[in-house]
Amino acid sequence: MVRNKCRPILAVMAAAAGLATAMPGMAADKTVAMVLGVKGSPFYQALACGAQAKARELGLDLTVSAPDQFAADSQIPVVNAVAATRPAVAAVVPTDMQALVEPLRQLNGRGTHVITVDQTVSDLSFVKTQILTDNTAGGRMAADAMNALLAGKGKVLTITQPPGSAAQDAREAGFRNELKKFPGISYLGPQYQSDDPQKAAEIVTSTLSAHPDLAGVFSTNDQGAIGAITGLRQAGVTGKVKVVAYDAATAEVNALKNGSIQALIAQNPRQEGEAAMSAAAALIADKPVQKITLTEIVTIKAGDTAAADKYEYRANCN
Amino acid sequence: MNRMKSFFGRADAEPRLALEDDPTQTPRERLSRFIGGGWILILLLALVAVFWISRPAQFGSAYNLTMLAVNAAILLVLSVGQTFVIVSAGIDLSLGAVLVFSSVVSAQAMLWITGSPAGTFGTTPGGWDVVGVGLVVALASGAAWGAFNGLLVALARIPPLIVTLGSLGMALGLAQILTGGVDVRAVPDLLVTQIGTGTLFGIPMLVVIACVVAIVAAVVLHLTRFGLHAFAVGSNAEAARRSGVRLRLRVITIYALSGMLAGLAATMSIARFSTTTINGHAMDNLSTISAVVLGGTSLFGGIGSIIGTVIGVFIPIVLLNGFVILGIPPFWQTVAMGAVLILAVWIDQLKRRTRQGS
């Protein structure tokens, strides 16, 4: 009886093995492995789309992986597995400035060129190039946009990730420092949501209870923005409280078009993905690469639908 | 002795080596019970075989196999604690949060002793004495949270699911309060280089620690009275109490043990990542529960084994590793992991039913 149960299962396993072996083996020259920050994020999806399009154009063999959570303990097993495949180049979005140093160093030690994309690490000795956006400048642009929307006065709240994410910290710091130039604006400080729109909504409604004259909310990423506008809608102050949001995910672009968000600070993840592939191709061809590649950030104001459509983070690669 | 057996109802399904063997079992039945999750072992070997055959140079490389073991080490230590708790018909959802809290307290203690400013990148020159203090602090903090859980479950009679859910929130929140949300990034260099990346005869230290923990736990669970009482409490708590088992003390010590292992895992985590990871370990509680269940431990208590847990820990890790190496798109990995969990437990249920039916 045991053998009868065993046989079909073993047969399935053997078939799966056969199928997997039939997959084309990877040529060691032009393989590029990309490890995103997290699965299911429109920003990283758009980044992967840009990378895939450029990889096709340049003839690179690209595989994309991503961890379940934007956290080091979730990402490191994925990085280890990528290291086992020995690609020519690895483009990684490090989810922690420190914890990823050792795994990336191991990756480099096994003969793979390492590129960091979108975030960075504290030890750059083995990183060939960094693809970055200037998050501090983005924060400053957000502050300028907020000042214009509020005509120079009012209370402002920031919704951001807990401290420790270099990009988010830089955006909040840039925002805060630029706000100091505008004496009429009083800054309530940052509140933390961990990529949870539900939490962001609760933070906004609680802040409105404490400060009914809240004038503006700045969100440093898309999840916070979605939560913020939900909170404002619940409180019935959509449009009265001005929202400036980082990133141009589809939900945010829609909110911009229907008036819930008044300004977007859009990055260009497709450009980041493309820049990563160009750098990878250059590394494979033994050509020199710049140490840092900055990609663009733009302010999109309400009403500028053409720009909104152009910079929207499209997650479906077309 | 025989009276106790009849009280325990499902006694024939437990791998109890300490008692006299049932002469009616065949050696194969005895062996399959000893392994606990016998079919799960075959599933794991089959997965390893599939991935090895498809990508021998990559999956089968010494580097990759070592990395699999290192990635499994911390989760294994946590899952061993969870095994004890689930075997005694409890559940511990607070493991990840207790790990985070213990790592924060331990890192701050070590930093306070060596006197370096907090929040700096890099390592501190703390010696083994500092590391020792950090370890003791982590173990004590984990055991304290565990005892807290156990007290509420045993004395206040609150269901373990609720108690540990509550302590999850409290431990995580307190960890964030203690640090202001910022990870402590300056940890003793010795800890990172000797334990985090160090090796003993070529085996990574973290793997050695996990192996020692698993072996000791297996001995305790299967060969000591403490382990027997754990099974007894899980199988039929009232019968255990009437047989003279000090029920409340057992429950408290089991949860304290689980918490202490979380403290040990916290030190391993600091060693591995060279930083506390406050935003990480969010899914560790569910990962340990699925590892323990995959290994053949019953969620209702009374049945379980450490070897089963070891196999259960490796299955999701091997799956993730194999999928990334094969280049399967990330979302399919999530689907596949859920499917394998259901498949593995279903096969195990089939095995149990045929054994009980015959």
Model description:
The complex is a heterodimer of chains A (318) and B (358). With 318 residues, chain A is an alpha/beta fold. Chain A has two domains: 28-133 and 269-295, Rossmann fold (3-Layer(aba) Sandwich); 135-267, 3-Layer(aba) Sandwich (Rossmann fold), CATH 3.40.50. Chain A is 47% helix and 21% strand. In chain A, the strands form two sheets. Chain A has a six-stranded parallel sheet with strand order 2-1-3-4-5-11, with helices on both faces. A six-stranded mixed sheet of chain A has the order 7-6-8-9-10-12, sandwiched between helices. Chain B has 358 residues and is an all-alpha fold. Chain B has one domain (37-357): ABC transporter involved in vitamin B12 uptake, BtuC, CATH 1.10.3470. Helices cover 73% and strands 2% of the residues of chain B. Chain B has helices at 2-7, 27-35, 38-54, 56-59, 62-87, 95-114, 128-154, 160-179, 189-196, 205-223, 225-235, 237-242, 247-273, 284-294, 306-326, 330-357; strands at 123-124, 187-188, 199-200, 203-204. Chain B has a two-stranded parallel sheet with strand order 1-2. In chain B, helix 3 (38-54) packs antiparallel against helix 16 (330-357). The longest helix of chain B is centred in the last third of the chain and has 28 residues, at 330-357. At the A-B interface, helix 1, strand 2 and helix 3 of A face helix 3, helix 5, helix 15 and helix 16 of B.
Query: Could you report the average pLDDT of chain A, rounded to the nearest whole number?
Result: 85
Largest interface, per-chain counts?
A-B, 47 and 53 residues
Count of separate structural domains of chain A? 2
* Oligomer status: heterodimer
